[in-house]
């Protein structure tokens, strides 16, 4: 250890460096712990406000009561129908989304030529970027009409509409997480399988998919979480009648979900009333359901990580311990999956005894059949691949229809005046200028709060600590925050910021609420970006005598920057399109002037669209115009993110 | 030379995008012998061996011209089925790549995808293949354990057993020992010596001693060209080309 001339200056610079290092570390630590504090705060405030209803109505009666009628005389607070509604809509969505999602994931990861892949992947991401209120708008105008006409019913606002819409919205999650899982199965497995003369489909179905099974399962669970927590789109198309469908598989019955109830009633309730507490009780139930679902996904994904660690170690030539894992784990899983699928399918058959049911059943059953069957591998491959292609085409077609409808109907209204004038006559006339500005204020404020906190937390988690109880706690906190339905953030913002801190319905309350919502995304994408910088680079810098922070700042952060930027931009897109979190915290429907301080309310594009679509008859043109502006805004943001990522992907490869 | 030719390449050219990785390679490979391909990194030896069972089909932007004839039939002809070809021409990779399944399932995988489902038949194939890969004694008590728990050398022999289980005629080995320690390497080498009684073996290696130890024929490649191809003894003791001599004597590469 030739310390050389450093011993000549033990001195001030070193002390200063040391102090600076630990100060920086402390700052990052507080950023990291913030996510945990936030989740506890959210839980705390929801419970405080929800607690009285559990006392008053009793936990059991609240959960199992069949009548939800808070404004009746006497009022009744039973949320069983709402829970059933949420479950039915979610199950329906999954039945539709899972086959198409997995089919598309298989196509993207295994079948698509690079050029096709380069188009489809961003297209799927675009599907994820479309704000839920735009989906709801589309559902309300097109989907419910289609259902009304093709099934010849008085109204199309139904369970089926909700499930189709939620299915579409869950698709991107299912596709991208499954695709990641399939792509991360080492390509050596594929080569090994092909080298013994297996067909591509045999390789896919027997090696790649079993290898990715837990990832695919997690994808489905995450999609389920997304569907359960979705508010705006569901609220707009399900009809919101608090009834249990009769018979239970009547998909054309209207239905009401937990989230929908919050979205509709929270704005009109008297603060502190029993009804108010009942709504927080609903939020607590919703939060508990999503927490359980997301924890489940995390456990499964965590197990995959452990499993992947083992062979990775081996490649580095490290001494191996005999693995306890032993027997082939997927055989029983596959068997169970078969029965689960069959169960779901037979349910679906009874429920959706229409064309959709038939197609889905056909897709799933033939998939299973192909795995089991003894028909020639080549024919099996042909059938399987055509089904896979069919599922991708369907997904792209849906995206195309949505985009086409909104663009073709909205374009004529996209005038200069529309963009620069305040609304008149409840938004039927005039423009949306205050809403555009409001959305920009909200989004930028949210990012300004979330970005430093998120990056700090990620740097602390990834660079300063070893994996331990603390990091696990923080990371779990962030993940749970990530899976929390956006309407729950809205309620928290309302109870804590608007009421408790007396901010009132204001810009700043909306910004903080949105910041909380995007924080986990920023933490996780930054962490991923930091992880992708190989540790050899850090070691190289540290070996030259650089301090920790110098190393992070000069050699770790620069190559991680594109990843961080991408994550941030995606968060901007998400914040810009969200309605539920700002609905009770920051926005008003109509305001002629721009806010002059942080404590004034603003207009915002998603909320404006929501009100135009649901509460203002005769605003046909401005509805589409607003939807198009919102869509363009979000698509532009996402395109920038995708462009940044692709650009650096090409330059930078470890 | 009385032995029969099993594989020939004629004017084989290969491009990765705009990069030409093989330049009109023409060789004849003899059945039931070991042919080694040597040359410095990037000379195209791995690319060439991956042409023999069309593994390069998986590489995007890869184009091939010329022909490879297996028993006189061009495997790149229209209508030639890569799946059939890979069944007859198996491959062992640089890094051992067992599937994350049990030892048994790894070996049974090939027969299963080719339609064998009878348990007794599979048992017999698995045992025979593992014996032929000189692995049976080491794993016979842990057939149902995960193959990922085997040592690197055992994993590689398992991959050889997996290849043998579909009864190919030709076994391609792409630097099969480069990830292994010397003991595991010598086990694989003596296994290759056994295998050549029944199979044609083509091996890519960057280790010249290994080539001289295990092979009957050697091809020396440089910058995508087959510089010299002949009996191993002749290549190593009395090369015709100066480039070959320079490489073998360690003056470059």
Secondary structure layout plus pairing:
The complex is a heterodimer of chains A (654) and B (253).
Chain A: H1 12-57, H2 59-64, E1 68-69, E2 76-77, H3 80-111, H4 114-129, H5 132-150, H6 159-183, H7 187-195, H8 200-229, H9 232-237, H10 258-265, H11 274-315, H12 330-351, H13 355-372, H14 377-410, H15 416-420, E3 423-424, E4 429-430, H16 433-464, H17 469-483, H18 486-500, H19 507-531, H20 535-543, H21 548-577, H22 580-583, H23 605-615, H24 620-651
Antiparallel strand pairs in A: 1-2, 3-4
Chain B: E1 5-16, E2 19-25, E3 28-30, E4 34-38, H1 45-52, E5 62-70, E6 73-74, H2 82-88, E7 89-92, H3 103-113, H4 119-132, H5 136-139, H6 152-164, E8 170-174, H7 182-195, E9 200-204, H8 208-214, E10 217-222, E11 225-231, H9 232-237, H10 242-248
Parallel strand pairs in B: 4-9, 4-10, 7-8, 8-9
Antiparallel strand pairs in B: 1-2, 1-3, 1-5, 5-6, 10-11
Helix pairs in contact in B: 3-4, 3-6, 4-6, 6-7
Report what the structure shows.
The complex is a heterodimer of chains A (654) and B (253). Chain A contains 24 helices and 4 strands. Chain A has helices at residues 12-57, 59-64, 80-111, 114-129, 132-150, 159-183, 187-195, 200-229, 232-237, 258-265, 274-315, 330-351, 355-372, 377-410, 416-420, 433-464, 469-483, 486-500, 507-531, 535-543, 548-577, 580-583, 605-615, 620-651, and strands spanning 68-69, 76-77, 423-424, 429-430. In chain A, helix 1 crosses helix 18 (486-500), helix 3 packs antiparallel against helix 8 (200-229) and helix 4 packs across helix 24 (620-651). In chain B, helix 3 crosses helix 4 and helix 4 crosses helix 6. Chain B has a 6-stranded mixed β-sheet, with helices on both faces. In chain B, strands 1, 2, 3, 5 and 6 form a 5-stranded antiparallel β-sheet that branches. Chain B is globular and about 55 Å long. Chain B has helices spanning 45-52, 82-88, 103-113, 119-132, 136-139, 152-164, 182-195, 208-214, 232-237, 242-248; strands at residues 5-16, 19-25, 28-30, 34-38, 62-70, 73-74, 89-92, 170-174, 200-204, 217-222, 225-231. Chain B is built from 10 helices and 11 strands. Chain A binds chain B through residues 113-114, 186, 188-199, 202, 206-207, 210-211, 307, 310-311, 314-315, 317, 320, 322-323, 325-328, 330, 374, 377-378, and chain B through 53, 55, 58, 60-61, 83-88, 90-93, 95, 97-102, 105, 109-110, 112-115, 144-146, 148-149, 151-152, 159, 162-163, 165-166, 179.
């Amino acid at each position: 250890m030739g310390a050389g001339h450093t011993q000549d200056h033990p001195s001030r610079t070193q002390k200063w460096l040391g102090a600076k290092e630990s100060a920086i570390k402390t700052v990052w630590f507080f950023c990291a712990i913030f996510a945990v504090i936030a989740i506890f705060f959210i839980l705390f405030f929801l419970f405080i406000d929800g607690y009285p209803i559990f006392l008053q109505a009793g936990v059991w009666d609240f959960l199992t009561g069949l009548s939800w009628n808070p404004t009746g005389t006497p009022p009744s607070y039973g949320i069983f129908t709402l829970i059933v509604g949420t479950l039915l809509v979610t199950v329906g969505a999954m039945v539709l989304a899972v086959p198409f999602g997995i089919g598309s994931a298989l196509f993207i990861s295994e079948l698509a030529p690079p050029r096709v892949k380069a188009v489809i992947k961003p297209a799927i991401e675009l599907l994820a970027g479309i704000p839920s209120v735009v989906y709801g708008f589309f559902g309300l105008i097109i989907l419910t009409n289609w259902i009304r006409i093709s099934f010849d019913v008085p109204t199309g606002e139904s369970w089926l509409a909700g499930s189709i819409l939620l299915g579409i919205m869950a698709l991107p999650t299912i596709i991208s997480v499954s695709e990641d899982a399939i792509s991360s199965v080492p390509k050596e497995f594929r080569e090994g399988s092909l080298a013994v003369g297996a067909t591509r489909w045999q390789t896919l179905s027997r090696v790649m998919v079993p290898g990715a099974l837990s990832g695919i399962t997690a994808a489905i669970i995450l999609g389920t979480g997304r569907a359960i927590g979705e508010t705006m789109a569901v609220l707009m198309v399900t009809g919101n009648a608090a009834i249990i469908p009769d018979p239970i598989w009547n998909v054309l019955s209207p239905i009401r979900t937990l989230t929908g109830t919050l979205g509709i009633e929270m704005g009109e309730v008297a603060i502190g009333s029993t009804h108010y507490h009942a709504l927080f009780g609903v939020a607590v139930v919703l939060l508990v359901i999503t927490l359980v679902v997301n924890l489940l996904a995390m456990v499964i994904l965590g197990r995959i990580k452990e499993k992947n660690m083992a062979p990775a170690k081996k490649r580095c030539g490290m001494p191996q311990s005999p693995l306890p894992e032993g027997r082939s784990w997927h055989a029983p899983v596959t068997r169970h999956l078969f029965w689960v699928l069959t169960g779901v399918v037979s349910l679906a058959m009874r429920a959706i005894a229409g064309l959709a049911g038939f197609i889905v059943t056909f897709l799933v059953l033939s998939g299973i059949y192909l795995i089991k069957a003894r028909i020639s591998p080549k024919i099996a491959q042909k059938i399987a691949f055509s089904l896979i292609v069919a599922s991708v085409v369907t997904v792209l077609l849906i995206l195309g229809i949505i985009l086409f409808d909104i663009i073709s109907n909205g374009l004529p209204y996209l005038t200069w005046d529309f963009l620069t004038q305040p609304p008149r006559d409840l938004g039927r006339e005039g423009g949306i200028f205050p809403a555009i500005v409001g959305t920009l204020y909200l989004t930028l404020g949210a990012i300004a709060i979330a970005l430093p906190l998120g990056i700090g937390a990620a740097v602390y988690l990834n660079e300063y600590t070893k994996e331990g109880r603390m990091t696990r706690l923080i990371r779990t906190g962030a993940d749970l925050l990530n899976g929390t339905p956006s309407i729950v953030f809205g309620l928290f913002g309302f109870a804590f910021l608007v009421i408790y801190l007396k901010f009132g319905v204001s810009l700043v309350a909306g910004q903080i609420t949105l910041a909380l919502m995007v924080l986990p995304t920023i933490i996780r994408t930054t962490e991923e970006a930091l992880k992708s910088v190989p540790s050899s680079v850090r070691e190289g810098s540290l070996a030259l005598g650089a301090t920790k922070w110098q190393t992070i700042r000069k050699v770790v952060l620069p190559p991680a920057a594109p990843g961080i930027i991408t994550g941030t931009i995606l968060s901007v897109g998400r914040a810009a399109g969200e309605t539920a979190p700002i609905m009770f915290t920051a926005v008003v429907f109509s305001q002629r002037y721009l806010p002059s301080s942080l404590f004034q309310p603003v207009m915002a594009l998603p909320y404006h669209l929501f009100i135009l679509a649901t509460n203002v008859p005769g605003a046909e043109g401005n509805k589409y115009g607003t939807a198009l502006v919102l869509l363009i805004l979000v698509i532009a943001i996402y395109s920038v993110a995708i462009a940044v990522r692709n650009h650096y992907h090409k330059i930078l490869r470890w | 030379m009385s032995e029969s030719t099993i594989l020939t390449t004629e004017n084989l050219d290969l491009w990765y995008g705009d990069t030409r990785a093989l330049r009109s390679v023409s060789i004849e490979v003899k059945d039931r012998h070991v042919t080694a391909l040597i040359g410095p990194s990037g000379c195209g030896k791995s690319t060439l061996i991956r042409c023999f069972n069309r593994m390069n089909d998986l590489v995007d932007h890869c184009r091939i011209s010329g022909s490879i004839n297996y028993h006189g039939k061009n495997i790149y002809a229209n209508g030639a089925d890569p799946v059939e070809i890979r069944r007859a021409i198996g491959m062992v990779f640089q890094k051992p790549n067992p599937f994350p399944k049990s030892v048994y399932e790894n070996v049974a995988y090939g027969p299963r995808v080719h339609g064998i489902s009878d348990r007794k038949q599979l048992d017999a194939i698995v045992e025979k293949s593992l014996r032929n890969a000189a692995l049976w004694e080491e794993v016979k008590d842990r057939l149902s354990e995960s193959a990922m728990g085997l040592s690197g050398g055992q994993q590689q022999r398992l991959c050889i057993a997996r290849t043998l289980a579909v009864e190919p005629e030709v076994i391609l080995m792409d630097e099969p020992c480069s990830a292994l320690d010397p003991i595991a390497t010598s086990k694989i080498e003596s296994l290759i010596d056994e295998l050549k009684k029944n199979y044609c073996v083509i091996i890519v290696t960057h280790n010249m001693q290994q080539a001289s130890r295990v092979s009957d024929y050697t091809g020396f490649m440089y910058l995508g060209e087959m510089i010299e191809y002949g009996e191993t003894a002749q290549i190593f003791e009395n090369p015709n080309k100066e480039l070959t001599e320079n490489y073998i004597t360690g003056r470059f590469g």
